[in-house]
Design goal:
The complex is a heterodimer of chains A (367) and B (380). Chain A has 367 residues and is an alpha/beta fold. Chain A has two domains: 127 residues, Rossmann fold, CATH 3.40.50.2300; 193 residues, Response regulator (Rossmann fold), CATH 3.40.50.2300. Chain A has ten helices and 15 strands. A six-stranded parallel β-sheet of chain A has the order 2-1-3-4-5-11, sandwiched between helices. A four-stranded parallel β-sheet of chain A has the order 8-6-7-15. About 4% of the residues of chain A have low confidence. Chain B has a domain of 245 residues: Orthogonal Bundle (ABC transporter involved in vitamin B12 uptake, BtuC). In chain B, 69% of the residues lie in helices and 5% in strands. Chain B contains 15 helices and four strands. In chain B, strands 1-4 form a two-stranded antiparallel ribbon. In chain B, strands 2-3 form a two-stranded antiparallel ribbon. In chain B, a hairpin with a 5-residue loop joins strand 2 and strand 3. The longest helix of chain B is centred in the middle third of the chain and has 30 residues. The radius of gyration of chain B is 23 Å and the shape is globular. About 1% of the residues of chain B have low confidence. The chains are: A alpha/beta (367), B mainly alpha (380). At the A-B interface, helix 1, strand 2 and helix 3 of A face helix 1, helix 2, helix 3, helix 6 and helix 7 of B.
Chain lengths: 367, 380
């Protein structure tokens, strides 16, 4: 009896191994379509940042059709997992990789694959085969802040934020500056979640903000959890990254949304033509990189008109929300009157290096 | 009809191999059902998994990279679980080992020590960091009988927050502060070149690179095996694991054992962290989307369960798990759900632990007539 059982088990194991070990040639098919990969830090359907990139990828696939073969990898951690993903993509013949979060691209990995073109979102490292791309989302965040300020009765606004890094600080500041245009004296209270995408933490952050007395919620994180909570509390909500109005149809005001598609198409076409060059792309409202999502029912016509007028001024360059005089939380003058903050130059007075919060923001820039 | 579970007197050796293998087969079977239900072909998927893990060019290298931390955390879990000391804190102990190992590398490498010395120091400091973190639940268990599962698990979150704090929220020693890029986004200070761990390349199949950490893990496996099989320490630890009372009555110093085993287990997990810094990231990775997202410490538990706490089996299983992780990254996409690898690992764990019951117990189905008549049941 025992021997029979042993034999049966051995056979089963052997069969399983044979099944798994049966090999097929793993060579990739003909290389005519240009292979491009997109790497996301979160799920492709997070309702936020990664979803916006995914929409960009689908835009590319639709625009370029059979000339390109696109794929995405989601939930890829920074570090060895990213390196492994790049290694496997390289082995499969991918020629261009869009890494959609800071920290992915390191000199080591880009030097290891000099024939692959890398583009990183929100970063600063440049090399022969590395380009960076991002844009002036702060302009549309500023405009969305105007909507928040107009919708607030008490002038107390809450803002759920991820990490205390210049990108997020800049957006929080833009939001506050916008709110103060439509609601002079408005304050924006920050709660840090230490995560780009964590619906549970974001909901808790929103709860603590409401408990502290805010009557409008905004965010610089990737999930619509804040909005869902706002809807349940019947308070207005400004989203981020993509149009998530379906999660909170009554509370939804608007959001700063990214439109990555056109940039992707442009760059992929350049790569296919051989005209691709490294560069630092900083998009704007004018070139379609960023825009305001459609308004919700709570935005009045007067507010819409005011926002539109500011948008026109930003687009034609006559207005910039990060132009002096700008005071920090302690009241100190940081940017003199008439001076505009630049993207990269100016140290801590640059957009990419900003580590201080403007007057009216409640919370620490250190997290 | 009566079904009883009886403890076996002897544990047949073939069962000890059959149950882990059977657990894996069962897990793949269940995952295959999941694949079928979501509209994928399980057989082609599994063939692709095998391909992507071991056969494609360069995939062995990637598998070894994934397997190195898993070997350490698997050994750490095995070393503790063997004594029924459930150290779930390998994840946090790994983070602390990374912090202390990186500190040694940055400090000593920066002062111009020789590579051998700096790397040895990183290994030692990584081990000690993990040990220190594991001694917290160890002391609580030894002296206050606090459940080490809860304490070690919750300390994982504390360690993760500390790791993030050092890079993201403070200008700590580990953080890169020079240069404009450093102000734009927080990153760790890069290790000096003398602190970078070496790797050996075997010139087969396009070059297989074996990181120093992988070799260190094998050495640790040997040490753990010798410790548990050939020393009194190991014997006493196993007795304590099997029967607390028997151990006490035979004079085993229980408190010391608990502390020693937790220290060993935590130290090995700390080595996982030091290896991450020395072999791969070459700086302290405090990004919550980096090391903290990968769950190496938790996968180590699955590995230890599957290896039935045998150190050599743990290294082998870690290699296979590394292949699975690597394949998961490679295959991930529209045809292969991103979470499938995690699902497979979870089912393996359940099956392996459930299979444990079968190894230690036998199922007897008895007709209720006989037992009453004789009053005695013979064990056949």
């Amino acid at each position: 009896m025992k021997i029979k059982i042993k034999l049966a088990l051995a056979l089963a194991v052997a069969a399983a191994v044979a099944l798994v070990g049966a090999l097929a040639s793993s060579a990739s098919h003909g290389a005519s379509p240009y292979k491009v990969a997109f790497i996301y830090v979160g799920p492709h359907n997070d309702g936020g940042w990664s979803q916006a990139h995914e929409q960009g990828r689908q835009y590319v696939q639709k625009a370029l059709g059979s000339k390109v073969q696109t794929t995405y990898k989601e939930n890829i951690a920074v570090g060895t997992q990213f390196n492994q993903t790049v290694a496997s993509l390289a082995a499969q013949g991918y020629k261009m990789i869009f890494a959609t979060s800071y920290g992915y691209i390191t000199p080591a990995i880009t030097q290891k694959y000099p024939n692959i073109l890398f583009e990183q979102a929100t970063g600063t490292y440049l090399a022969k085969n590395v380009a960076e791309y991002f844009g002036a989302a702060e302009d549309t965040v500023f405009l969305s802040g105007m909507a928040a300020g107009a919708a607030s009765k008490t002038g107390k606004i809450g803002f759920v934020v991820a990490y205390p890094i210049p990108e997020v600080i800049r957006h929080a500041n833009a939001f506050a500056l916008g709110a103060q245009v439509t609601h002079p004296g408005a304050t924006v209270r920050l709660v840090w979640t230490n995560s780009w995408f964590d619906p549970a933490k974001e909901k808790k952050a929103a709860q603590s903000l409401v408990a502290a007395g805010v009557d409008v919620l905004g965010q610089n994180v990737d999930s619509p959890a804040t909005g869902q909570f706002a809807e349940s509390m019947h308070i207005p909500w400004v989203g981020y990254d993509s149009n998530s109005s379906k999660f909170a149809p009554k509370s939804w005001l608007t959001a700063s949304v990214y439109n990555w598609g056109p940039y992707y198409v442009k760059r992929i076409q350049a790569a296919m033509n051989g005209t691709w060059k490294q560069g630092f792309y900083y998009g704007s409202i004018k070139d379609g990189f960023t825009k305001l999502a459609a308004y919700g029912p709570g935005v009045t016509a007067a507010t819409k008109a005011k926002i539109a007028s500011y948008q026109t001024k930003i687009e034609n360059g006559s207005y910039n929300e990060f132009a002096g005089p700008l005071y920090d939380q302690s009241g100190k003058l940081r940017v003199k009157k008439g001076v505009r903050m630049q993207v990269l130059t100016g140290g801590t007075n640059s957009l990419y290096g900003m580590n201080w919060l403007v007057k009216g923001v409640i919370g620490s820039p250190k997290g | 009809m009566r079904v009883t579970f009886e403890r076996r007197l002897r544990q047949p050796r073939w069962l000890s191999l059959a149950v882990p293998v059977g657990s894996v087969v069962f897990a793949f079977f269940v995952a295959g059902l999941v694949l079928l239900v979501t509209g994928h072909n399980p057989l082609t998927t599994y063939r692709q998994v095998f391909d992507a893990a071991f056969l494609q060019t360069g995939s062995l290298n990637q598998t070894l990279i994934a397997a190195t931390p898993l070997a350490f955390t698997g050994l750490a879990a095995a070393a503790a679980f063997r004594m029924k000391l459930f150290n779930i804190g390998a994840e946090g102990q790994m983070y602390i080992g990374a912090i202390t190992g990186a500190a040694a590398g940055l400090y000593l490498g920066g002062r111009g020590g020789s590579s051998v010395f700096v790397i040895a120091a990183m290994v030692v400091m990584g081990f000690l960091g993990g040990t220190a973190w594991a001694l917290i639940p160890g002391i609580l268990r030894a002296f206050f009988k606090t459940n080490e599962i809860l304490t070690s698990l919750l300390l994982n979150y504390v360690a993760g927050l500390l790791l993030t704090y050092l890079i993201f929220e403070s200008e700590s020693y580990w953080r890169e502060t020079k240069g404009f890029n450093a102000t734009v986004f927080p990153t760790g200070k890069p290790l000096p070149s003398s602190a970078v761990w070496p790797a050996w390349t075997i010139h087969l199949q396009g070059g297989i690179t074996i990181p120093f950490g992988a070799m260190l893990a094998v050495a640790v496996a040997v040490v753990v095996w010798v410790l548990y099989k050939r020393t009194r320490f190991g014997f006493e630890a196993q007795v304590l694991g099997d029967s607390d009372r028997a151990a006490r009555y035979s004079g085993v110093r229980v408190r010391r054992k608990i502390l020693a085993v937790m220290a060993l287990s935590g130290g090995i997990a700390g080595l996982a962290g030091a290896s991450q810094v020395g072999d791969f990231s070459h700086s302290l990775d405090g990004d919550p989307n980096g090391l903290q997202k990968l769950g190496y410490g938790y996968t180590g538990i699955v590995i230890a369960a599957l290896a039935r706490y045998n150190p050599f089996a743990a290294v082998l299983v870690a290699f296979l798990m590394g292949g699975l992780e690597n394949a998961g990254n490679t295959l991930q996409g529209a045809n292969f759900p991103a979470g499938l690898v995690g699902v497979i690992q979870g089912i393996i764990l359940f099956s392996a632990l459930g299979g444990e019951v079968l190894i230690r117990h036998r199922v007897r189905i008895a007709r209720t007539g006989h037992a009453k008549a004789t009053g005695l049941e013979t064990v056949s």
